[in-house]
Amino acid sequence: MALGSIASKLAREIGSVVKKAVSSNRGWYSPHMAAASCAIAQRLPLVDLIVEIRDARIPLSSEYELLRIVPPPCPPSKRIVVMNKMDLTNPTQIKEWMRYFEQQKCISYGVNSHNKDSVKGLLNFIQAQARELNKADHRFSDAITVMLVGIPNVGKSALANSLHQIGRISAAEKGKLKHALVSPQPGETKDISSLKIGSHPNIYLLDTPGILPPTIHDAERCSKLALTGAIRDSLIGLKDLAQYFLAILNLSDQYEKWAKLSTNWGKVSILEHKEEHSSSSKLEMRQKRQYLTDHTQDFMVHDVRRALFDAISSFDGNLECEDDMVKLIEAQFVALREAFHVQEEIDQNVQDKVAVKLLNLCRTGRLGHYTLDPVPATH
Ligand SMILES: Nc1nc2c(ncn2[C@@H]2O[C@H](COP(=O)(O)OP(=O)(O)O)[C@@H](O)[C@H]2O)c(=O)[nH]1
Ligand SMILES: [Mg+2]
């Protein structure tokens, strides 16, 4: 996705804030990350397969640079690039990315760690790849080690747990093994841990702490990492980050499908669900209707979408003009305060509260699906 000059400008400004925080020693590269990166680098040459997890919303910005730095260079047949969080990305753009990886002779795969069938597909793919490697090396080993690597918060631990649950190992074995810690905060996995994900041959998966390079020179990349949650929010102004997201949203076509929300919510949202899941059975539809009426969260998402849509559609400025975009974003913040029920007289830091709530919806895909990195041109 070409972000548009204004979104890019905002991204660079926020990125500069992040870079400043890093250079003033409040960065992400903790002693813990440095130690983990040494431990990973030592083990990398010993594993059979490296599965590099990237965030499908930023297939390039979420690259794991350690693989490029650590000698000896990892042979392409030993590395699979897995784009996780496919449910949050733009389906058309991610297809272009997969084609790009294919052209680059890079083995890639797209997955949603929260979806059983999707993880099952990846497990089969890893097993086939491991068998191929065994054949090529003329090895007949009964144990294969796969290392999951990636920057923070791309879903390594979530994927490790899902692979472990689905892996064809006995229930008794499953009970004995621990689960990796999954968290929406980056940097929660502190040690390398092993989970078994298959038998005959035995496949062991090493979940590792997320590693970022000590410095990132590209300010726009810093912002994309911040927006997708790879960098702690405390390094960035929350309002700036929310503004950046609003600029992306306003320049995209994602909000257009919320036009129909302006009428009766209950009726329309059920219709919307019907369209999205036309194959659902009547029972499933009934359950969904129940779900919709039960969950105040859905009403809030509806109000937020409508507030954003109404602000854009009633705006008569030029979104390519920076001043106009800023005016629209300010108007959206005011409308969002109401949609999120943030009360000015009670809440001190109104703007940050609105920003946190907005970022939460953005990061869980409830305000559209985005691929923020454009596919590099190939010649
Ligand atoms: N929507 C979505 N969220 C995911 C997916 N995989 C992981 N997550 C979420 O991303 C966050 C980070 O996951 P975690 O496994 O702790 O990331 P790690 O730091 O790479 O180990 C958690 O809130 C997960 O629930 C996915 O495929 N789709
Ligand atoms: Mg983890």
Automatic annotation (TrEMBL):
UniProt GO molecular function = GTP binding; GTPase activity
Q: Which SUPFAM superfamilies match?
A: P-loop containing nucleoside triphosphate hydrolases (SSF52540)
Q: Does the keyword GTP-binding apply?
A: yes
Which of UniProt's keywords are assigned here?
GTP-binding, Nucleotide-binding
Q: Which GO terms describe its biological process?
A: mitochondrial translation
**Pfam family name, one:** MMR_HSR1
One term under GO cellular component: mitochondrion
**Boundaries of every CP-type G domain copy:** 38-214
The UniProt entry, under Gene3D superfamilies, shows: P-loop containing nucleotide triphosphate hydrolases
Concerning InterPro entries, the annotation shows: G_CP_dom, GTP-bd, P-loop_NTPase
**Know the name of this protein?**
DAR GTPase 2, mitochondrial isoform X1
UniProt source species: Herrania umbratica
Lineage, highest ranks first: Eukaryota, Viridiplantae, Streptophyta, Embryophyta, Tracheophyta
Gene (UniProt): LOC110425281
